[in-house]
Amino acid sequence: MFNINEVMKSEYRPATNSKSKSSYKLKLLFLAYKIVLLILYDSIIALFKKFNPKKPKNISKKLALVTGGGNGLGRCICFRLAHEGCDLAIADIDFKAACQTAAEIQEKYKTVCKPYHCDVTDKNAIYKLKNDIESEMRGVDILVNNAGLLYMSNFLTCNVDDIERTVSVNLTSQMLMSRIFLTGMIDRKYGKIMTICSIASVVGGPTLAVYSATKRGLDGFMRSFADELLVTGNDKFIKLTSVYPDFMNTRQEITETLDSIRHFLPRLTPEKVADDAVKGMMRKKKFVYCSKITSFYFASRYMTKSSKKYIATRVMNISHFYK
Ligand SMILES: NC(=O)c1ccc[n+]([C@@H]2O[C@H](COP(=O)([O-])OP(=O)(O)OC[C@H]3O[C@@H](n4cnc5c(N)ncnc54)[C@H](O)[C@@H]3O)[C@@H](O)[C@H]2O)c1
Questions:
Q1: Which residues are near ligand 1 (CB < 6 Å)?
Q2: CA of 88 to the centre of ligand 1 (A)
Q3: What are the pLDDT digits (tens) for 248-291?
Q4: How far is residue 53 from each of residues 27, 192, 274, 280, 286, measured CA to CA in Å?
Q5: pTM of the predicted structure, to 2 decimals
Q6: Per the UniProt record, which residue ranges are transmembrane (predicted)?
Q7: What per-residue confidence (pLDDT) applies to 222?
């Protein structure tokens, strides 16, 4: 492990190749043999798991913190978690909406539910949020990193401040939240962290350069984070779930933008995505793909340039982004 500040201050040292080529080749061959065996073993286990899905774990009385829980998908996740008997802390920059959601949930489910004002891009605000929740409620068992901005733009002319803000809300904040709340989860030997990625984590497209970069970054973060929990043994009690929704009808501006591009694929409801997400988390699923046409997205990675251009210009209508 190296200290990034010390490395940047010291003089640049080019790497030297210390390994002899012959022993390297032999080791590589042996490693390839072991990997083939592991893949075989993993395939058998995956097949077994497919036909014997895990039973959902009871999360009643756990304390869940949902970022951006005042509106849209976050609000629906709060209701879905309350339905499972969770107590809730709702953190949102839109405090009025957080209060409204908290009041409705308390009325409907009689669970403990508190609203918190927090801008999740501000690390000091996150530390304060943690202290406030721990003193007014208790330690967070379930963290739902949902707050995000669906930013669609012409990258060639977009506002640079918007790039910074999108990266900060969609990517940096999720790492800060996870890092700051993880310590308590490890101490208490219980934790679930759910992250709302997007189908844009799987495939990008015109108008989505910045958004897709943040969501793809999140996917990379969650996969590497899971591996770190695995090698340290913390994966036994800290479970991660990444959720990949297709476009949803949430904020009106989002719906209007999506309508304007003649998006030809069916749009999801946030209630359905919240249901899939919470059920997936309770079944300890690492990945929850909410769209039935996910395989279309995977396939579109391999489209030719002309097919991509045809879909972008003839099937969808995105010309107004590029005037
Ligand atoms: N709407 C879609 O089509 C779609 C598709 C795929 C993924 N997603 C993802 O789902 C998540 C929720 O999206 P949504 O459509 O419900 O959005 P939304 O705009 O309806 O709601 C987002 C909520 O997050 C809050 N928020 C925004 N910035 C914040 C900040 N800095 N600190 C705290 N709270 C903040 C907002 O006040 C709002 O309550 C996002 O991560 C988004 O990227 C959305």
A1: 67-68, 70-74, 92-94, 97, 118-121, 146-148, 150, 169, 196, 198, 245, 247-248, 250-251, 254
A2: 18
A3: 999 998 888 888 886 666 789 999 999 999 999 999 999 999 88
A4: 37, 19, 20, 11, 13
A5: 0.91
A6: 28-48
A7: 98
